[in-house]
Design a protein that fits this description.
It is a single chain. The chain is an alpha+beta fold. The chain has 2 domains: about 80 residues, no CATH class; about 80 residues, hypothetical protein PF0899 fold (2-Layer Sandwich). The protein is built from 7 helices and 4 strands. Strand 1, helix 6 and strand 2 form a beta-alpha-beta unit. Helix 1 packs across helix 5.
């Protein structure tokens, strides 16, 4: 009799997915793992996990798959299909920034996002070099742009007539 896999197993894996890019990598890994389940000469599941997935996701996925009965690829296939569905349910926060975020930046943003928005949210990060000192954020139908250029423009907007008068007198 096999040990039932609870949704917390999905949660353990989904919590380590921070961005849509990482989710895409996991989707690809799930596809490769599912194909390998039924092939005699395919790479081992462990090898696929280690080579195709980020470590933070690979560790809990490997632990869960190793608890499944090895003689039944159907159990692993069912688990992987459920994981795919759980990943699809994650909400997406779109974030545009002017720079390529480092791992440290992504980690800090993830902590903030999970504390303030929820654990079931991942980031879709894109780069817009025209942003000056800020970002654009879109989530749940709401949009916010915070950048230095718009702050300066807003401050100057109030003073625009005064500045024009001073320049052209």
């Amino acid at each position: 009799m096999s040990t039932p896999i609870h949704t917390t197993s999905y949660d353990d894996i989904c919590l380590n997915v921070r961005t849509t890019h990482e989710r895409s990598m996991l989707y690809n890994g799930i596809e490769a793992l599912t194909e390998a389940l039924y092939k005699k000469k395919a790479a081992s599941l462990e090898e696929i996990i280690d080579t195709q997935l980020p470590y933070a996701v690979a560790r809990p996925l490997k632990g869960t798959l190793m608890r499944l009965p090895l003689s039944s690829p159907d159990a692993a296939k069912e688990f992987l299909a459920g994981l795919h569905d759980a990943l699809t349910q994650l909400q997406i926060l779109s974030l545009e920034v002017a720079f390529e975020p480092t791992e440290e930046t992504i980690a800090v943003l993830t902590v903030w996002m999970r504390e303030h928005i929820g654990a079931d949210v991942i980031m879709d990060i894109s780069i817009d070099r025209t942003l000056l000192g800020g970002s654009r954020i879109s989530f749940g139908g709401r949009y916010k742009e915070i950048n230095l250029a718009s702050i300066i423009e807003s401050a100057l907007g109030d003073q625009r007539e005064i500045i024009k008068h001073m320049l052209y007198e």
